[in-house]
Design a protein that fits this description.
GO terms for molecular function: CAAX-protein geranylgeranyltransferase activity; protein farnesyltransferase activity. With 350 residues, this protein is mainly α. Helices cover 66% and strands 0% of the residues.
Length: 350
């Protein structure tokens, strides 16, 4: 049966382009058997590139190629250059990205192209809602989280520095200050909403490590988390609540360790909260704000035992107390030999 495919060179508006075949090795052992539509489109694309043509038909051709091979970086780069050169309607391009990213969430090229278009538009209106929809498909997709963090930093960081460095007239300064205040209020709401978003995700799946990572980034690494002491106090309450719900959840324990390390807070600060988890006690409240352990929670918590062992090891290292390091074996008998080794190491430098 004859193919119904019509080559570009036979289509109206394309006859002036002479296809340029791919240069393969003269005697290739295993030549790639490209499908005819893809081979023809690529041959035509090479002709466009050779002419350095930026045109609407180039946009049409690159879309056809992208749909056949969304990972082809050169096609994306040429498409972006062409769209900007011919001053195309970039909102329509975002519509196309909305469609394609659903099918290619793990394609670096799709996300990079979207960033290029959004920067050119200088508009954030679609990006946070868009990534929220994308994460509904795959809540742990690295590309989506990385893009969301870029959008937050690019569009919703404070403009205080710009105002401080302003050299404009007084009336302009007043207007600029008013605008900056509005921007700060808007940005503050966005970052507050971001914490609420991570909470929604963790309420659905307390083991969503991506949501925990993002929460840490918002609170401690983005530069927009707020006063560090207040953030630490809030996040300690939050992670305690989640550990009371699921004491053997590695993601929550990693988050706890992460915020303690980031703020140089000793592990022993949490000993009173952690010890009952290690002993299998459901009454763990060490302050009026602490949660009691959920009835459905699995105890003993082996991660609590490991945490207490590390508390002892940290204190032993600080105090060069080999005997105390050896006591870690009582909390973590599975690694008895390891803790005895640690005790010997402490004693050797005491």
């Amino acid at each position: 049966m004859a193919s119904s495919y019509i080559p570009y060179a036979s289509r109206p508006g394309w006859q002036d382009l002479e296809p340029i075949p791919q240069k393969d090795a003269p005697h290739a052992l295993v030549p790639i058997a490209y499908a005819e539509p893809y081979r023809d489109a690529m041959d035509t694309f090479r002709s466009l590139v050779q002419k350095a043509e930026m045109s609407t038909r180039g946009v049409e051709l690159t879309e056809a190629l992208i749909r056949m091979n969304p990972g082809h970086y050169s096609i994306w780069a040429y498409r972006a250059q062409t769209l900007l050169a011919i001053k195309a309607d970039l909102t329509k391009e975002l519509d196309l990205m909305d469609e394609l990213i659903k099918e290619h969430l793990k394609s670096y090229q799709v996300w990079q192209h979207r960033r290029t278009i959004v920067i050119a538009l200088d508009s954030s209106s679609r990006e946070i809602p868009f990534t929220t929809r994308a994460l509904a498909f795959d809540a742990k997709n690295y590309h989506t989280w990385a893009y969301r963090q870029w959008a937050l930093l690019h569009f919703f960081t404070s403009s205080d520095t710009a105002i401080a460095n302003s050299t404009s007239e007084p009336d302009q300064d007043v207007a600029s200050a008013s605008t900056a205040q509005q921007d700060r209020h808007r940005s503050s709401k966005v970052w507050d909403d971001e914490l609420k978003y991570t909470q929604e995700l963790l309420d659905k799946d307390v083991r969503n490590n991506s949501a925990w990572n993002h929460r840490f980034w918002v609170g401690f690494e983005s530069g927009m988390g707020g006063d560090l002491e207040e953030v630490l106090e809030r996040e300690l309450r939050y992670v305690k609540d989640k550990l009371a719900l699921s004491p053997n959840n590695p993601s929550a324990w990693n988050y706890l360790r992460g915020i303690l390390k980031h703020t140089s807070t000793p592990l022993s600060t949490l000993s009173a909260f952690v010890r009952p988890l290690a002993l299998g006690q459901r009454e763990t409240a060490t302050s009026p704000t602490d949660s009691t352990i959920s009835e459905g929670a699995e105890l003993l918590s082996w991660l609590a035992i490991e945490f207490l062992a590390d508390v002892v090891a940290q204190e032993a290292k600080t105090n060069r107390d080999g005997e105390k390091a050896g006591e870690s074996a009582a909390f973590d008998p599975i690694r008895t030999n390891y803790w005895l080794y640690r005790a010997e190491q402490v004693e050797s430098v005491a």
